[in-house]
Amino acid sequence: MNAAPMLELRDITRRFEKKLDFAGRIAQRLGAPVREEIVHAVDRVNLTVRKGEVVGLVGESGCGKSTLGRMVAGILPPTEGTILRDGTDIKALTGAEARQMKLRTQMIFQDPYASLNPRMRVQDIVGEAPRVHGLLEGAAFDDYVDEQMRRAGLDPGFKRRYPHQFSGGQRQRIGIARALAVRPDFIVCDEAVAALDVSIQAQILNLFMRLRKELDLTYLFISHDLGVVEHLSDRVVIMYLGRVVEEADTETVFRRPNHPYTRSLLDSVPRIENRKRAFSVVKGEIPSPLNPPAGCHFHPRCPLAMERCRVEVPKLREIAPGQRSACHLNDQ
Amino acid sequence: MTAPTLEVRNLQTYFFTRAGVVKAVDGVSFSVGRGKVMGLVGESGSGKTVTGFSIIGLVDPPGRIAGGSILFQGRDLAKLSEEEMRDLRGNRIAMIFQDPMMTLNPVLRIDTQMIETVKAHKKVSTEEARQRARDTLGMVGIPSPDERLKAYPHQFSGGMRQRVAIAIALLHEPQLIVADEPTTALDVTIQGQILAEVQKLCATTGTSMIWITHDLSVVAGLADDIAVMYAGRIVEKGAVSEVLDKPLHPYTHGLIGSVPSRNKRGEALRQIPGMTPSLLNLPLGCAFRARCPRASEACIAEPIMAEILPGREARCIHPHLDASEAA
Fold first, then answer.
1. What is the ipTM of this complex?
2. Going by C-beta distance under 8 Å and a sequence separation of 6 or more, which residues neighbour residue A76?
3. Distances, alpha carbon A42 to alpha carbons A45, A75, A81, A186, B83, in Å
4. What pLDDT tens digit does each residue of chain A (332 aa) get?
5. Would you say residue B149 lies in a domain?
6. How many helices and strands (H and E) does chain B possess?
7. Number of structural domains chain A divides into
């Protein structure tokens, strides 16, 4: 494959800063130990997504997976780094071209209760964006909205209803119909099934897979649920405190995990096959992203940490074809 | 065989609302033996939380226990006065909630809250109570408990807060703990730590536990017995390994099939069609009828809970008996 990948992130970084207020600045002048707080939510991440691929992005709270997803969807600008879509730097685009590019990436959110305007009818939620962007003429509107709703598994007869008249699973379908209405080719799902019951979750996951085939979609699937990611993804990226620690195809990550964090994560996941067994335990807590440990972020919890891990940041590098891991142990 | 710690018989908890009577829990029976963990599994609105609240006496109007009995060490909790119930609650029976901030007061230090709890049921000096609080914090795996006692709840992380809530539940060495989705909001590695802690506690102290959750995988690793709830009723119960390996009820069967790790990667998940019916408007007969692949005319008659295999009860007239159909 010589074609440029669908999405390429180069050294993407996002920092959130909390500037000192007036009183804080005075206190600092007078020698009080206050300082600006900086969170490195995403720290020099490189990621490539090829056309038609489903990439699972996994990590625990505060690892930066949602921030990364928002940057990919164009909701949040990166502090540093470049985002390439089909080989084009999206920052270089202007005007109509930039708008067109933005439409091609859409996002589906975790909370269907919070991401739908409660005062809009479903037909307006789904139809607003295509109308604003001139994707359809006035007369075609009704048919188009019907088609979008039917595709997401909703009865078009409900299009004059409001979001509160739907259940959680149906609301998530409205969110999906809305995202697909502008004909994107890339979808960022941020914990899109986390709030749903198991049986409804299965329905939505099946819908994602069907749509992928029907519309030739590419997904960045962000989740903390390893079971869901294993089922859906072709490739898995594991993040910890703003950095990618391991990346490989799904088989490899689940059969031959390399990074100690990946391994302990897999060990911690309760599985329905495991009966009445001792839960293995990763020691310690996730450190605050405000004040992450030096060197490898995982070293205070790592059972194999060495002196070097406390000082030097491990580089993400290829350890086997298609498998990249950021751990000093691979150097030995 | 000693008597079970808790025996719930035909429990009915109804909510008398303007729109009609909501039978949130309708004829639930189960028992929990000493030192055993019982997993109460179900989806939103299945009545699992209301069952837990009924046991500990926290059902608020318009809801009330309309029938049945909750026998705890021989006493019927449903018939106790509020005074007698308060004497048991937090002392012999404790509860852990999904959100630890529901248990913890944000403006009081941990030591204030824990000492208060100890003194509520025991006549001890403040110093002894503090000692007890510190020991319990240590027991649930909180490092340097002496210093942490002086902290406020917001200074703890989510996982640590849940540990504090568990420690408070354990202060009086209760015989029964009702845990309502205590690890649902936590990260997997933290959830693993808490589950390991809980397992250890039940094994060493002989505390019985009701673990309410929607997550079959957690129950698989933790519980001895399992009861699956649907629309206010238990549809299947039995030993964990039996129920999860050879589910009898089509709902249990479908639920297990919906778990992603049970399916081949990339293939469509075996989903249950439709959604949970409203409790205000339950269909006649079996509540699962409309979503069930095995339903027939006969399902219009209400199925009763029956022992289908030795030690295995299910509420279904078309159970999965054939081994080849196992999930």
1. 0.79
2. A14, A67, A70
3. 7, 15, 11, 21, 54
4. 456 889 999 999 999 888 888 888 888 888 888 777 888 889 999 999 999 999 999 988 888 888 999 999 988 999 999 999 888 888 888 888 888 888 999 999 887 778 899 999 999 999 999 888 888 777 788 889 999 999 998 888 888 999 988 888 889 999 999 999 999 999 999 988 887 888 888 889 999 999 999 999 999 999 988 888 999 999 999 999 999 999 999 999 999 999 999 998 888 888 887 776 666 677 777 888 888 888 999 999 898 889 999 999 999 999 988 899 999 998 87
5. yes
6. 10, 12
7. 1
Contact B94, B177 (CB under 8 A): yes
Residue of A nearest to B223 (CA): A276
Residue B56 in tokens: 């500990």
Tokens of B14: 């109804």
Q: Quick one: tokens of B233?
A: 């009723």
Residues 6+ apart with CB under 8 A from A179: A106, A107, A108, A187
Alpha helices in chain A (DSSP H): 22-29, 65-73, 95-103, 122-132, 141-151, 168-180, 198-215, 226-232, 250-255, 260-268, 307-311
**Residue A244, in any domain of the structure:** yes
- Please give the full DSSP string across B72-94, using - where no structure is assigned: ETTEEGGG--HHHHHHHBTTTEE
- Decide if B293 touches A, using CB distance below 8 A: no
Pairing label, strands B225-230, B208-213: unpaired
Give the domain-ending residue among B171, B202, B226: B171
**Is the CB of B188 less than 8 angstroms away from the CB of A209?**
no
Residue B77 lies in a domain: no
Q: In angstroms, what CA-CA distances link A130 with A93, A96, A144, A183, A187?
A: 21, 15, 9, 9, 16
| Residue after which a domain boundary falls, among B171, B195, B213 | B171
Domain annotation covers residue A2: no
Residue among B188, B220, B256 minimizing CB distance to A224: B188
Buried/exposed code over A217-227 (b: 16+ C-beta within 10 A; e: otherwise): bbbbbbbbbbb
Look up the domain containing B294 and give its range: 249-325
User: How many separate domains does chain B show?
Assistant: 2
Residue A126 falls inside a structural domain: no
**Residue A93 domain-assigned (yes or no):** yes
CB contact residues (below 8 A), chain B span 100-129, against chain A: none
Query: B25-71 pLDDT, tens per residue?
Result: 999 999 999 889 999 998 888 899 999 999 999 898 889 999 999 99
A205, B260: Cβ pair inside 8 Å? yes
Tokens of B126: 């403040």
Instruction: Name the minimum distance, in Å, from the CA of B196 to any CA of chain A.
Output: 5
CATH number at A12 reads 3.40.50.300
Question: A205 near A180, Cβ under 8 Å?
Answer: no
User: How far apart are alpha carbons B201 and A151 in whole angstroms?
Assistant: 50
Distance CA A273, CA A281 (A): 18
